[in-house]
Amino acid sequence: MMKCVEHGHEVVALAHAHPPQSADTEELDSFLFQTVGSSAVHAVAECMELPFYHREIRGTAVTQELDYTLTADDETEDLYALLAEVKEHHPDVGGVSVGAIFSSYQGNRVQHVCERLGLTMLPFLWHRDQAELLQEMVAAGVDAILIKVAAMGLGRGDLGQTLGQMAPKLLALHEKYGVHPCGEGGEFESFTLDCPLFKKRIVIDESQVVTHSEDDLAPVMYLSIRRFHLELK
To answer: Tell me: the pLDDT tens digits for 74-86?
Structure first.
């Protein structure tokens, strides 16, 4: 979103696809969406003082090929319904900010949805050098923490650490094991507490570490945000 604003666009609304309320875990292992941290995503909209639209993820990755064709019960159709609702309330909206860096699987699906809705996909991070991008984000004032780890060399102690704190370790793991410095291989996921677009910052008061799957080399764990508050900047 920061890149969208930098290129002269106006962010008018935020949209989020989240696990069903009946789900017993935040981690759906979705091929398309990040679901860890969903319980606190609405706070990002509050920090930016923007409308917030959300929808349960009802589908699954029915079609797992790289290219996508309209498929019933696929989670891509949840994205379509979500963005269709946004467009209904904001008929002048013309584009969708996309944070994908290297996933053609995700990029192709967002592009498919955008074309059907007459929207332009705005992937300003697409194919950026990840080591360079990581350091750029930190320097630009993105205060984001790791809320999920799933790679060799990452563990419980890294959850809750900021990108700035983790940058040296992530770059070292990139050199040693080929870990993507921005987590594009699913090595980690993050949650933004503050950035220059926010008018308030998110402060986590209570969280819990959840082990999603045991693995001696690369255990999958995530941080479940239980309580938080907002602070004026």
So the answer is: 999 999 999 999 9
Instruction: Please state, in angstroms and rounded to a whole number, the distance separating the CA atoms of residues 31 and 212.
Output: 16
CB atoms within 10 A of CB 47: 21
Using the CB atoms, write b or e for 57-75: b if 16+ within 10 Å. bebbbebeeeebeeeeebb
**Do 226 and 207 meet the contact criterion of CB atoms below 8 Å apart?**
yes
pTM, whole model, 2 decimals? 0.95
The total of other beta-carbon atoms located within 10 Å of residue 205's CB is 9
Name residue 62's amino acid: V
Instruction: Give the helix/strand (H/E) hosting 217.
Output: none
The two structure tokens encoding residue 120: 């332009």
Looking at residue 34, the DSSP 8-state letter turns out to be -
Angstrom CA distances, 177 to 128, 172, 207, 221, stand at 20, 8, 30, 19
Question: 105 phi and psi, to 5 degrees?
Answer: -55, -50
The answer to whether residues 148 and 36 touch, using CB atoms and an 8 Å cutoff, is: yes
Residue 215 binned pLDDT confidence (cut-offs 50, 70, 90): confident
